[in-house]
């Protein structure tokens, strides 16, 4: 499937540093909701970048519960696969998804030969490390309410977080069952700590009227 880079640049300006040779090697792939991109144990053949839709990296416990490791609604994911011989998790689309697939060999050559692209990639990895640190800190918190408030404060803006996923999917990301999430949201709302408006969660200031 041909790739229209002028259209992609308009959608994803962060891809501006992709060098010409790597652009020529890329292919566009489409996934249906529930379709797997790769499975644990597969050999990495490409670096992937979501244009629209959503891809989750996950593992399943012995009891069948899903553990979400990473969620991408835009941009690169599974960055560690660049230096891995096999994937350590599954990747599945949760909605109709379009993504770019950059062949591994071409991607490595671009990093070695293009300083601007290499610097942009290093900056991306630094942002991902900060995001993962925040998630690890959140998962170490005891209590569903604490995790919810941490997510709003660390990932939202001005005390407001707009969910780009279902609450059930967000629960998995927080390491909670969806029942525990719904109960905690109800408690926070009843206490006047949180306002809920569809996908929007807003922290209320002390003394603010409901």
Radius of gyration (Å): 19 Å
| Main sheet attributes: strand count, strand direction, barrel closure | 4 strands, antiparallel
Report the CATH C-level class of the largest domain: Mainly Beta
Based on the structure given, which CATH architecture of the largest domain is correct? Sandwich
Could you list some keywords that capture this structure?
210 residues; alpha+beta; Jelly Rolls; Arc Repressor Mutant, subunit A; 2 domains; 4-stranded antiparallel β-sheet; 39% helix; 25% strand
Question: Any overview of this molecule?
Answer:
It is a single chain. This protein is of the alpha+beta class. The chain has 2 domains: 132 residues, Jelly Rolls, CATH 2.60.120.10; 63 residues, Orthogonal Bundle (Arc Repressor Mutant, subunit A). 39% of the residues lie in helices and 25% in strands. The protein contains 7 helices and 11 strands. The strands form 3 sheets. It has a 4-stranded antiparallel beta sheet. Strands 2-7-4-5 form a 4-stranded antiparallel beta sheet, with no helix packed on it. Strand 4 and strand 5 form a beta hairpin. Helix 3 packs across helix 4. The model has no long low-confidence stretch (mean pLDDT 87).
